[in-house]
Amino acid sequence: KAPSIKVSSMKSNLADISKELNCLSQFEHMASLIFITDQASQARPEHVIEKLTKGSMVIFRDYDQQNRAELGTALSYICRAKEIKFLVAADLTLCLMLKAHGIHLPEHMIGEAQNIRQHHPELFITASAHNEQAVKKAVDFGVDAILLSPIFPTKSHPETFDDPSLTIGTDRLKNICEKYNIALYALGGVTTETAIKLRGTGVAGIAGIRGLEA
User: Distances in Å between the alpha carbon of 79 and those of 82, 83, 107, 135, 200?
Assistant: First the structure.
């Protein structure tokens, strides 16, 4: 019998907590931690990637970068060297050009998953979702994993601090995890303090833009 694993509040970083959450889920074969690039919030993504452990995942966003292809080339090289999955967000052409492991679809692009799967079955497909309806759609269209947000109040959506009802919360997150047999990643306001509240929800791990430097 495998030893029971408990998420401890003494854990010092999100990487450690995400691994424990992953072990408690049914998706141990998948990444436990996903780093989403956004130079407006994290100016040196390569510094974060260098500290990620083997088996993590990077979603290359940075939509507005004029040199997006060049930056993607550099980051994908680092990921390959570290055996980290590299996904390109919202751009199939760039995804294929960089020979990325997969593509990440914003919520409004979920409907494209089926066509991408048909023509590029080798790609790992993730999608963003902000409610259960979007989760169901992503499952129906056959994505491999879903980033659900915002779980907690987050700087990316300041209004969530004034109105917590705009967040998913752990109770709804657990309900969605139990209802859909797909890897769900908690995104939005996940810090070392809030991450321990994810224990028992069934999440496959944590996704984040900030807080992954440690």
Answer: 5, 6, 25, 28, 30
Q: At what angle do helices 169-179 and 132-140 cross, to 10 degrees?
A: 20
Give, in order, the Cα–Cα distances in Å from 191 to each of 101, 127, 156: 27, 22, 14
The answer to whether the beta carbons of residues 112 and 125 sit under 8 Å apart is no
The model scores a pTM over 0.90: yes
- Per the CB < 8 A criterion, the answer to whether 138 and 129 are in contact is yes
Q: What is the per-residue pLDDT across 18-70, written as a single tens digit (0 to 9) for each?
A: 999 999 999 999 999 999 999 888 899 999 999 999 999 999 999 989 999 99
Judging by beta carbons within 10 Å of its beta carbon (0-12, 13-18, 19+), is residue 71 exposed, middle or buried? middle
The enclosing H or E element of 84 equals: none
Concatenated DSSP letters of 14-48: HHHHHHHHHHHSS-TTS-SEEEE--TTT-S-HHHH
User: How far is 37 from 117, CA to CA, in rounded Å?
Assistant: 24
Structure tokens at 51: 């500290």
Query: Torsion angle of alpha carbons 39, 44, 47, 49, nearest 10°?
Result: 20
What H or E segment, with its residue span, contains residue 206?
strand 205-208
